[in-house]
Structures are given as structure tokens and as C-alpha cells.
Amino acid sequence: PLDLLGIPGHFSSTPVFLYVAPLFGLLGVISLFFTGKALFDNKVGLLASFLLAINIAQIWFSRWAMSEVLTQFLVFGALYCFVLYVKTAQRCFGLLAGFGLGLAVLSRADGIFLIVPVALYFVYLRFTRQLRLEHLYFFIPLIGLLLHWLIHSVLFSRTQVSAISRALPYF
């Protein structure tokens, strides 16, 4: 059936899902480049992405079907979109940042710890009186996905959440 779409036949015999983790590993390196470029300059982005690309942990996790490289891509992509949202105030970047961070929380059991910097950012905005209605473009998708995480945690994975909460003092 893939031949009808113009895709070579060797993909139909090879499990395509084996290419998903390396793809997200590559996307994580690329998104780190753009995040470093947006925060600093091209040199920082290139150095950071090069160091990540040659890191043995990056290579290892990109070879196995695990959620680490997906989470990495979502976090770096959300951070890049967040930086663009703060610099340009365009709604689409706020939405992408909120969705990206919310999906990163959903992709791992311990992803809820990603909420700490967001909560600190919210407190900073509140105390400096810079919190505006436009910030809802970032917070609404994130809160929606956090509600999804909460409902799923309560209904389906109580033991996993309780194990993470017992490990909190070690963090």
C-alpha cells in the first residue's frame, strides 16, 4: 500500500516506528539551536546544539523508543516559542508554547515538574503588575492540558503519581 503513495517498498517491510525516536532526537537538537539563537546568538545556538548532538546520552536515547527525546523536543520547542512570544507578543507563539509545554507534561510521568518555572513566571508577572490578558494565549492551552493530566492521574495512574510524590523530598 505504501507503493501507491510513492514511498519505496523497503519502508513497508521495515517497522517505520523505529525512525520516530531518532527523528525526535534530531528535532530536539534543531530546536535547541533555535532556542539558543533566539536567546543569545548564532554561535551559542550552534555550540549548544553541537554539544547536544555529540552527547552520548542524546545518542543513546535517540536509538531507543523512549519518551526522553520527545520531551526534550517539546521543551526546547516550547521554550523557543515562548521566547518569541515574549519578544514579539504574537498569539500563535503563545499558543504553541503553551501546547508544547503541556504536551511535555503529558509525555512523561515526572513532567509535572516542568510547571515550577511557569509558576515562578506567573508569580513574577503578578508581583511586577505585568500580567496582561494577552498572557492567556500561553496559559489557557497549558492549563487545559494540565487538567487533562490531572484527570488522567486521578482516574488511571494513582500509583505512579503517588510514587512521584513520595520522591519529592529527594528533589
Structure, briefly:
The chain is mainly alpha-helical.
Topology (SSEs and partners):
Blueprint: H1 10-13, H2 20-39, H3 42-53, H4 56-63, H5 68-88, H6 91-107, H7 115-127, H8 136-155, H9 158-167
Main structural class: mainly alpha
Strand tally, please? 0
Q: Which range does the strand content fall in?
A: under 5%
- Helicity level, as a percent range? over 70%
Q: Which spans of ≥5 residues are poorly predicted at pLDDT below 50?
A: none
Main pleated sheet: none
What does the model show?
- This protein has 171 residues and is mainly alpha-helical.
- It is 73% helix and 0% strand.
- It has nine helices and no strands.
- It has helices at residues 10-13, 20-39, 42-53, 56-63, 68-88, 91-107, 115-127, 136-155, 158-167.
- The longest helix has 21 residues, at 68-88.
- The model has no long low-confidence stretch (mean pLDDT 87).
Tags for this entry?
171 residues; globular; mainly alpha
